[in-house]
# Entry
Amino acid sequence: MVGGRPLEGTVRISGAKNASLPALCAALLTDEPVRLRNVPEVRDIRTMGRVLGALGAEVEFRVGGVVEVRARNLTSLEAPYELVKTMRASVLVLGPVLAREGRARVSLPGGCAIGARPINLHLLALEKMGATIGVEHGYVEARAERLRGAEIYFDTVTVTGTENLLMAASRAEGETVLRNAACEPEVRDLADLLNAMGAKVEGAGTPTIRIEGVRSLGGAEHRVIPDRVETGTYLAACAIAGGEIEVRDCHPPHLEAVIEKLRETGLRIEEGPDNLRVRSPRTLHAASVTTLPHPGFPTDMQAQYMVLMTQAAGVSTITESIFENRYMHVAELERMGAHVRVEGRTALVTGPTPLSGAQVMATDLRASACLVLAGLGARGETIVDRVYHLDRGYYRIDEKLRGLGADIERIRWP
Ligand code: EPZ
# Structure
């Protein structure tokens, strides 16, 4: 891409990847069909389709983001390493398979670019519900005649941990209470689907969730919420490239912390019921931020916000309190001319510094988005390598940005 062109026009937000992934797994809790709408056609969704297929579920991808899953009966209870290693969210089959079949074998996901990302809290909580958990040869072996409701307190807020336990508890014996549960909108969306399937979940979206287990769940139809991180990414894109855009099909209340923080930097944002009108100011001001569990500023927006701060006047600190190693994008930004100093979990950004286009390499999904945003604001040409990271979670980001006037194209790189 070649930077320097302000953005203008309208961009439509796709469904949330991180709401679609647990929703697909929830279909394992019933032998009836579950139909999901507004599912983004991104790589991780295809991968989850393969994981469900490997378990014996029928997965049908229809046009326009409709996916139908029918797990009539499971022919395997194992999520194999070769699939789990490509997408750690595969661990979300653990809760539903264990609840339905009394047994599950899931490869440990292993670390990834942003940290060790253990699943110890998922396993501890399932043990509290009466499961026997063994870990050997890189696999989790879980068994439970029938899961029993329990009082569970999560030491650390865990999004997929909360989601795994929501699904496991939905078909357990008795009541489960999850405390210090994740409040992310994706957790609330999963609970809405589970309740549509006949589950009895209360309090999703708050730190305390009560689930009254039921013997069986039925099929349902569900529309997945818009992707709040994709929405925030386009707000940041407009702030960096300049111009004025409208973001449609989004849900502003799901990203209030991001909207407030971007307003603090000077970005003009008008909120509508399902749209945002954004205008970039002449100058941006530095504003510090700490990533926090929802409703705090999301870690998935940290890298994108950092690019913005390299263009803002002043010194800002960005503290990453969720993951221990989510600064892989810093070295690449420095190669483009950014002034960022990382000390432990805090990055010190001094701006504004002109960015110059360069050949850079993506390491993880959000870092690759940050490099694309940097390219929009850089002088000259930027080539982002390993864009498969992008395609995991952003639906056609190059087309959407080109639709806003950016000079960006996908190339076949040797
Ligand atoms: C989810 O990952 C998201 N993925 C991530 O988005 C997101 O960054 C993250 O939540 C935080 O919001 C999906 O929803 C598929 P966590 P998850 O469990 O659930 C520690 C993206 O870009 N922890 O909330 O894996 C963990 O190491 C991805 O779409 C334990 O120690 O994150 C981390 O430091 C990247 N033990 C913190 O908790 C556990 O058992 C939060 O992790 C579980 C987590």
About this structure: The radius of gyration is 21 Å. Residues 18, 21, 89, 115, 117-122, 156, 158-161, 299-300, 322-323, 365-366, 393 surround EPZ (CB under 6 Å).
